[in-house]
Amino acid sequence: MLGLLDLQPSELLVTDAGLPLPQPVIAAGELLDTVARPLLRIIPAAATGHPLSSSLANRILHPPIHGSVVRALLDSTDETRSSHGVDTHGAMSLAEGRWDEFLLRRAQLLGSSTAGFVDRHAEWGARDRFLASSLLDNGAQSA
Length: 143
Description:
The chain is mainly α. It has seven helices and two strands. α5 packs antiparallel against α6 (about 100-120).
């Protein structure tokens, strides 16, 4: 989920004429707190039996969409799709109904996004515990 949130997903909005609108970034914290099911399935469950169909690779973080999530993704701009972890290759797979290929590609992209998030926020090499001597030294000084 961290990798998905780190992409700062934008809303999938289009005009009545099917033209993409400028996309605001979704307020993920608010969405998670207020919407009962903020993770929408991209590909219907019955469309593929791939194990990834029940994973985050087949979900977007978005307010409810009227109609097809696939159609909303395909009608959006490259930049908006990218904010949902869907690259050009993934969009082509979606458009052509190659569900398993889409899920594998998106799982890779979300995995990379998650690894990048962890690398940016982890304090690699930092101590994760106190030295006992530092705790005892403080006690000796206050006595």
